[in-house]
Specification:
The chain is α+β, with helices and mostly antiparallel strands. Among the domains are: 2-58, Alpha-Beta Plaits (2-Layer Sandwich), CATH 3.30.70; 215-307, Calcium-transporting ATPase, cytoplasmic transduction domain A; 399-427 and 533-639, HAD superfamily/HAD-like (Rossmann fold); 431-530, Calcium-transporting ATPase, cytoplasmic domain N (3-Layer(aba) Sandwich), CATH 3.40.1110.10. It is 49% helix and 19% strand. The strands form 4 sheets. Strands 5, 6, 7, 8, 9, 10 and 11 form a 7-stranded antiparallel β-sheet that branches. It has a 7-stranded mixed β-sheet with strand order 12-24-23-22-13-20-21, sandwiched between helices. A 6-stranded antiparallel β-sheet has the order 14-19-18-17-16-15. The protein is elongated, with a radius of gyration of 32 Å. The two termini are 42 Å apart.
Length: 707
């Protein structure tokens, strides 16, 4: 079983996505995800079905499959611009022919427009263009078993045109003059589609900016026959692992790479939301898409294509967009049966008006057409993805990554936030401020360095960096034990431990130190380090309290140190001296009492992050693959924690507002049209604008105050 990712061109609404979703599920495929706004389709395939058969099946529904590659996002971006342009062209073309008929509808009864054949000549080009677009789309949707909005537009236009044509051919035009209805329905729906597509494109703007950044020009360093350096300007997508590149001041970093020469100030705001440049020197990593603001460096490419940090970010955001939160499930169920229901209502409207009112056939037909063209299934399908696209886009632009859409919805209920201490509330950058050894100092420092150099724990890193030794010890075996520390043995069979108090609790009653060094079950020294509380921590805690969110410090560190940090920051509750398993159990207990978010960093936090309602990880932008967390703060700090909470809450509020509008619009508009209070023309205009209302409401999330 493996995951297949495709790009599909031609999806224009939620019903398109439902059609493809239904087809893929019908083929027995699992974990199907379809995002009509980005053209992304993914599913798990166990090789029972060939990719070609799946692609042909999707094409049979009326969509085009584009082979996924490094430029597929840019391709979709270009295609969406073409699609926008084409819809605008269709609208203008139809408007030229429909404009004179508008004059006729406004009461300006010009004599030549009273002629049925003149109206037929003006309407025919509009009708043909409309049927080529709406008719084709409608037929494909009927074939897929999930009829879309274009079926309603097609039926409404077809009914009014055929009725008018019948009157013209039978020389009874007075009772059959509905050509202007046909022309205006098609023209106004094209206008609505253009406005809707333009609005939806705005909701995708943040993601598209990231996608466009994937393709830049690069200065590739090559060597001639005399082994002299030459510069070849190439597209970044042609770079390979290990290629050498030159990046000058003001240029973008073309791919993930590692500096081998030079220094630079780099703007990583595209990825982290931090506008302040970061100083980089030799051996530092540069992230593709960031900008070298000052300096010149030579670097070696370390990742290309889908392996780059920017590609990982794009994939995470797109995956989150394809996820459907529970709130969307009802809308999807209604969308799947909406069009047949509306057609049924339209038929009932015609029969009821014809048989039970004074209206003639033509008046009853007009009301029936009005019902079909004012109904808008797209609104229900667009309500959730539009809001999620903007919410995720704003989050990504500010260095916050949501791995699934469900997390956005869960944030609305969060009542308490659990923090790890080291590396989360504190910077995780330690320095040795005290130590004592009971053996030779140089020998003890060498032992400490030789053990701690193999650990990724921030305290261990600080010790190995300060006490780097050339004569380090060689180990037969060494391992990092969660909740204990580093454990090793040498060739002579001596055992060594560098770890927390739990490693030495049988050897001393003094639990006040950070690291204890034990050799052959004998305490040979201890080390104390100092850690700095993050500058933003106090403000973040205060902000959470202002929103009535309880704060809890959950750490494996000693109780005295945890209580000191909690007192400085004003944290409500302290749970200290916990093993990773105990931390996980505590989060599970807290989560059972009230929805809980866990914020952590490091190997010890993984189980607890997984148990929380929402796991939030602090991460360097170059290390975003934190598997156990649903949300990643890429600026390696707490600064954007309130933003992530606020965006989650307000995105869900926007979804509810959108769904309320979508349901209210259809519940009110359809009966109003059925009782004859709306003409088909006005119905087409209102229907076209209904989706725009949702998109505009969603786009407000880009600047709405959420913290």
């Amino acid at each position: 079983m493996h995951t297949v990712n495709l790009k599909v061109k031609g999806m224009s609404c939620a019903n398109c996505a439902l059609s493809i979703n239904k087809y893929l599920h019908g083929q027995g495929l699992k974990n199907v995800k379809v995002n009509f706004m980005g053209g992304d389709v993914s599913f798990d395939n166990d090789e029972n079905l060939s990719s070609e058969k799946i692609k042909k099946g999707i094409k049979h529904l009326g969509y085009e499959v584009i082979s996924a590659n490094g430029n597929s996002d840019n391709y979709i971006h270009e295609e969406s611009k073409k699609f926008l342009h084409n819809n605008f062209q269709r609208f203008i073309f139809c408007l030229v022919f429909a404009a004179p008929l508008f004059l006729h509808m406004l009461g300006l009864h010009l004599m030549f427009l009273m002629n049925a054949y003149v109206q037929l000549v003006l309407t025919a080009p509009v009708f043909i263009v409309g049927m080529m677009y709406f008719g084709k789309s409608g037929i494909n949707s009927l074939r897929s078993g999930i009829p879309n909005m274009d079926v309603l537009v097609t039926l409404g236009s077809l009914a009014s045109f055929c009725y008018s044509l019948y009157g013209t051919l039978t020389n009874e035009p007075d009772q059959f003059m509905f050509y202007e209805t046909t022309a205006t329905i098609i023209t106004l729906v094209f206008m609505g589609n253009w406005l809707e597509d333009k609005s939806i494109e705005t909701t995708q703007s943040a993601l598209k900016k990231l996608a466009v950044k994937q393709k830049t020009m690069a200065n590739k360093i090559v060597y001639d026959e005399k082994h002299q350096e030459q510069i070849a300007v190439v597209e970044s997508t042609t770079l390979k692992l290990g290629n050498l590149i030159l990046i000058k001041s003001g240029e973008p970093v073309p791919m993930d790479c590692k500096i081998i020469w030079g220094e630079a100030s780099v703007n990583e705001s595209l990825l982290t939301g931090e506008s302040a440049p970061v100083d980089k020197i030799a051996n530092d990593k540069l992230i593709g898409g960031s900008i070298v603001e000052n300096g010149t460096v030579k670097a070696r490419v370390t990742a290309v294509g889908e392996d780059t940090v920017l590609s990982h970010i794009l994939k995470l955001v797109k995956d989150a967009q394809t996820e459907k939160p529970p709130v969307q499930q009802l809308a999807d169920k209604i969308s799947a049966v909406f069009v047949p229901t509306v057609i049924g209502i339209a038929v009932i409207t015609f029969l009821a008006n014809y048989f039970f009112t004074d209206l003639h056939f033509s008046g009853s037909l007009l009301r029936s057409i009005a019902v079909m063209v004012i109904a808008c299934p797209c609104a229900m399908g667009l309500a959730t993805p539009a809001a999620i696209a903007v919410g995720l886009g704003r989050a990504a632009r500010n260095g916050v990554l949501f791995k699934n859409a469900k997390s956005l919805e869960v944030f609305k209920n969060i009542q308490q936030v659990v923090f790890d201490k080291t590396g989360t509330l504190t910077t995780g950058k330690f320095s040795i401020n005290n130590f004592k050894f009971f053996i030779n100092e140089e020998e003890a420092k060498c032992i400490a360095y030789s053990l701690e150099k193999f650990s990724n724990h921030p305290i261990a890193k600080s010790i190995s960096e300060e006490w780097k030794a050339n004569n380090e010890l060689k180990w037969n075996n060494i391992e990092e034990v969660k909740g204990l520390g580093m454990k090793a043995s040498d060739a002579e069979g001596n055992s060594y431990i560098a770890g927390s108090y739990s490693a030495a609790k049988n050897l001393t009653d003094d639990a006040s130190h950070n690291v204890y060094i034990v050799r052959n079950n004998e305490l040979i020294g201890w080390i104390d380090v100092a850690d700095k509380i993050r500058d933003e921590a106090k403000d973040v805690i205060a902000l959470l309290h202002s929103k009535n969110i309880k704060t809890i410090l959950l750490s494996g560190d000693r109780k005295e140190k945890c209580e000191a940090v909690a007192k400085k920051l004003g944290i409500d509750e302290v749970i200290a001296e916990q093993t990773p398993q105990q931390k996980s159990d505590w989060v599970a207990k807290l989560n059972a009492l009230a929805p809980t978010a866990m914020v952590g960093d490091g190997i010890n936090d993984a189980p607890a992050l997984a148990k929380a309602s929402v796991g939030i990880s602090l991460s360097d932008a170059s290390h975003i693959a934190v598997q156990s967390a649903q949300v990643v703060l890429m600026n390696n700090g707490l600064k954007n924690l309130p933003l992530s909470l606020g965006l989650g809450k307000h995105t869900f509020i926007t979804i509810k507002q959108n769904l309320f509008w979508a349901f209210l619009y259809n519940i009110i508009a359809i009966p109003v049209a059925a009782f004859g209070f709306l003409t088909p023309t006005f119905g087409a205009l209102v229907m076209g604008l209904s989706d725009v209302v949702l998109a505009v409401n969603s786009v407000r999330l880009n600047w709405k105050k959420v913290v």
